[in-house]
Every structure is written in structure tokens, then in C-alpha cells.
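Feature request, filed as a ticket because there's no other form

It would be nice if the structure record came with a short human-readable summary line next to the C-alpha cells. Right now we just get the raw output. Example of a typical job, pasted below so the devs can see what we mean:
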Amino acid sequence: MEEISNFPLPDAFLDFLKENGLDPSIYTMRDSTPRYIRIKPDSEAQVPDVEAEIKCKLEKVGWLPGFFSIPPHIQIAGSKAYREGKIYGIDAASGAAVLALDVSWGDHVLDLCAAPGAKLCMLLDLLGSSGSVTGVDVARHRLAACRTMLQKYGLGDRCRLFVADGTTFSLLPLNAHGGLNSCQSVNEDFADAFKEWTPRRPWKERKIASKAMKSIASQLIPGSQEPDLIFYGRHSGVVGLGKSEIFQTACANEALNSGYDKVLVDAECTHDGSVRHIQKFEHWGWKTLQRRVLDSERTDTLTILQAINPFFNID
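Raw output as currently delivered:
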């Protein structure tokens, strides 16, 4: 092991590594950690073409279907396959989380920490033309990146995206219940039903829709920040429904029969175990590592954040 004092890591982090018998060089050796990409199922036959374009052999990850590893210096953003939405970068750990969910054909899946969207895309790939995925994230700008990914890769047809707090989100999957739930009675004006989603709706229409959604949602989810629907696909169950149907929440008896089949919660972590994340601080500044990763108050807060108990049926 090299002398710990030779590395520019903060003293508190070096002490943490020493106490746990970890070699700090794993965080500073830039060429040791591979990158991972996933090729869409309908594009796997084009692996030789991708290899020729990026001038690199794709090493298949045997335990993770559709995944390939590449050297860390290889860039895919300029490749034709990336521009055409046939491949995307995703950590193997993220893929493992989706694989562990064991998604089945027709499942309705809730992704409570959806941004920036790689796991969301993989879930939709696995479901194909069945089921649905509802993506939720508390950060609007990060969820907007999810929306961009869905459009680029053509995977948003059966997806909804909500800016919302995952610890309180309680909206049912639309394709699972078919109509109003038994917990409420709403007189809906279907003249105001959702039309097919478009990124270029007139400003006046967006303002009216936003005001109406906030009014409905605040009645259905008292005492919390109402979810904001920022995207929905053609077959996500939204088109043709009124706002009160979309924003109906789960009551006890309803959730048991028409909740989500699977829920994915890849909650924020301390990041000290992520080699690639720690390496980013070489550019961000090592001094910020103490504040953004090692701060004990932040760690305590994360423990509370990670204790999420969504009110849904999970297989």
C-alpha cells in the first residue's frame, strides 16, 4: 500500500479509509474503474458496429443482461449509436438494483428516486409494451433530465413523471384501477381531460392546467406538497382522463388491490463507497468532500430520508 499521506484526499476521509483497511489509491487511480453501457434489446445485433465506431471492444457483463463494460477513457456521447438512442451509460450498480426487482411482463412499477433516469429507461425496456412506470423525484431539474432521456430513447409511451416527495407520494397506477377509486366521489368535467402530451403547449393552456392540477391535488393530498405531473406517455393511462382521476390517492382497501406491483427506491446514500463519485471531487475540490460526503449531520439526515415506507402493495 502506498503512503496515505501522498494522496490529496481530506484527512477525515483518509482516517476513515485507514480505520477500515482500505487502500486510498482506489479513489485516485483514474484508469482502474471501467464504465458501463447498456444496449437496448432491439439494438444488440449492432454491437460490432458500435465497437467499430468507438474503436473499443465491448466486454459483456455476464451477470447483467444487455450490459457491457468499456475502458474509462472511452467517450460514447459523440457516437452515432448514442445519438440515435441505441445505447446509454448506466452504472452496473444501478442495473443490479433493477435486476433485483425482478420485473415481470405487465407490472406497474413505481420508481421513487427516478432521476437522472437510467434505471427508469431500463425498467421501461424490460416491460416493453406492457404495464407502466411512474417516476417520482423531488428535484424538478433532475426529473426534467429524465423526461429528456425518455424522449431521446423513445421509451416514454407507458410512463408518468411526477415532481413530488417520495416519502409522501400516494397516487395509484392508472392502468391498474380503471376509473375512480372507492375512497372518493368526484364530479369531473371531461371537457378538461388530458390530451396527448406535447412539449410545446400554449402558455395559456399550461397556466390553466397547472392551476387546476394544484387545486385538485391539494384537496386529495392535504398537508403536503402536491405532485406535479411534468410528463406522460400516450399509453400511460393519462390521456382522456380528468385531473381528479389522475390525482386520486390510495386509501387502505384500494391500495391492497390496485397498488403498484413493484417499487424501486434507490435512495440517496453517503457516496463514500462510490469510487467514481469520490473521483469527481478532484474537479469539484477536495475540500468540499468533507462538507458534502463526510459531514455527520448530513449522514444522520440521510438515515431519516432513507426510511421510506410507501403505502403500496409490493410483491
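Something like this underneath would help us a lot:
Residues 101-174+192-309 form one domain.
The beta strands are 35-39, 59-60, 67-70, 87-89, 108-111, 132-137, 159-163, 228-232, 262-264.
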